[in-house]
Amino acid sequence: MPEPLYNPMSLGFVSVAASPTSVIANYPTYTDLTAKVVDFQADFGNAGNVSIGYVGMNITTGIGVLKVLDSGESWQLSAAPANASIPVKDFYIHGTNVGDKVLSVALIG
């Protein structure tokens, strides 16, 4: 059986707060973490949408927002070109319902 291309690392659930929250909030020292792929999964119990974006994103205007996830929806962001890596610390979550959450998984290659 071939070896997997990526080693998955769960960053855990991160909850929506009053302002955008880093996806590495559970691991604040992982500022150098890079990944080939980052997978975002909105919790099925979320009451509203959760946005994925950059620090300073504005969910009203959409500036800095990359994707809006419905409850239970997932989204995968891949590095391009294939030999590149994504700095995981650059991604944040935000939404209108405090307590909604997103599970993030970094696929490290």
Description:
- With 109 residues, the chain is an all-beta fold.
- The protein has one domain (7-108): Jelly Rolls (Sandwich), CATH 2.60.120.
- It is built from no helices and ten strands.
- It has strands at residues 7-15, 21-22, 34-35, 37-42, 50-53, 65-69, 74-78, 86-87, 92-95, 101-108.
- Strands 1-10-4-7 form a four-stranded antiparallel beta sheet, with no helix packed on it. A four-stranded antiparallel beta sheet has the order 2-9-5-6, with no helix packed on it. Strands 3-8 form a two-stranded antiparallel sheet.
- It is globular and about 35 Å long.
- The mean pLDDT is 91.
Q: What tags apply to this protein structure?
A:
single chain; about 110 residues; mainly beta; Jelly Rolls; four-stranded antiparallel sheet; about 0% helix; about 45% strand
How large is the share of residues in beta strands? 35-45%
Give the termini distance in whole angstroms.
18 Å
What is the highest CATH level, the class? Mainly Beta
Q: Which class of secondary structure composition applies to the elements? A: mainly beta
Radius of gyration computed on alpha carbons: 14 Å
Per CATH, the architecture is Sandwich
At CATH level 3, the topology is Jelly Rolls
**Number of DSSP helical runs:** 0
Describe the secondary-structure layout.
Elements: E1 7-15, E2 21-22, E3 34-35, E4 37-42, E5 50-53, E6 65-69, E7 74-78, E8 86-87, E9 92-95, E10 101-108
